[in-house]
Amino acid sequence: MLPLGYLDGRFAEKKIHNVYYKSAGFTSAGKRRVQIVGRMTPRGSQKPNSLAIAGFLIPFAAAGITGILILGFEEDVTSLRVSILYLTIVPLVLLTGLVFSLKSIPLIEQLGDRDYAYSGLTLNILFIIVYITSVIYFVSSPG
Question: 18 with 44: CB under 8 angstroms?
Fold first, then answer.
C-alpha cells in the first residue's frame, strides 16, 4: 500500500494508476493532502455470475406467473385450463431456478455474487415448499 501523499489539483477524489485517493484537507504549504481509500482489483471489471442472478430472480417470475393466472382468470381459477397451467409451468420455472442456483454455487470463487447464489437457493427452496403446500391444499380440499 502506498503511503499518504500530496496531490495538486482541484478535485476532491482522483484515480491515479488504479489507486483511488480521497481529499484529507490541506497542508501548511497549501497543497492538498490525500489519503488512499482503495485499489482496483487486478481482475478489473469481472463478469457477473449470471446463473446466480437468474436463480435469484426466477422464483419471483414464478410468483408473477401465479399472480397472472389468479388475476387473469379471477373466479375461474379452479378450471382445468388454469390447473394444467399451474401444475406444469410454475413447477418448471421453479425447478429451473433451483438448477440455476445450484449450478452457480461452484462459480462463486471465479465470478463472485455469493449473496445472489445462496439467497436464490433459499428462495427457490422456500417457493417450492409453498408451491407443494398449495397443491396439497387444493387437491385435498372438497369440491
Answer: no
**Reported pTM:** 0.63
Q: Where are the domains of the chain?
A: 5-39, 50-140
Q: pLDDT of 84-134, one tens digit each?
A: 888 999 999 999 999 999 999 888 888 877 888 899 999 999 999 999 998
Please state at what angle helix 80-104 crosses helix 50-73, rounded to 10 degrees: 170
Three-state secondary structure of the chain: CCCCEEECCCCCEEEECCEEEEEEEECCCCCEEEEEEEECCCCCCCCCCHHHHHHHHHHHHHHHHHHHHHHHHHHHCCCHHHHHHHHHHHHHHHHHHHHHHHHHHHHHHHHCCHHHHHHHHHHHHHHHHHHHHHHHHHHHCCC
